[in-house]
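Running low. Invent one:
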Amino acid sequence: MAPVENLGFSPKIIEEYREKMLTLGRTFLFDDEDENSDEYSHFYFLGKFEGKDVIYDAVIYTLRLQHESELYEIAEHRAAKHFPEYKKITYDEDENGNLETLDPLEEEIGLFMAEVIMELEEDESVKVKEHVDLDANSEFGVSLDVGLHVERITDKVIEKFIKDFNEDTLKLDPTLYSFQTEDQEAG
């Protein structure tokens, strides 16, 4: 069986992406199939890899989002060990779009996970730092997983990252960060 061709290195596909970017006046294209937010973006940009033109398939997110994600993962793991009948909590909506009430076990698991997260935050057990993880063995182009210490992921942040990455001038902050959950009910 012949190896599958990585179309992220195809001159024809690269040219199609370049044209789309020129039309939009940007150095990147958002992945329309992913839900981008203030703290997360999935996009494509052009660059070089080992001397060849390539399309980079990148996700970029804030360190705060990465921190929250890691806290949740640890809490989920501990809940699975603590509750033999553990299953992922799913939030269902009723016909009016309101969240349906959790059953007593889901409620107990949710409270347990919240306590674990608060404890981890208090102890600052989880720390994250800026990083760029590169995967040259992806199905399309070269994949990048990027965590930056910024408040929001904006077009400007993405443009600066691409410029610094492509010019090999990217400076990552080696500081380890821990975050506290912001109380969203205040006010």
Summary: The first helix runs from residue 11 to 24. Residues 80 and 86 are 5 Å apart (CA to CA). The chain has a mean pLDDT of 87.
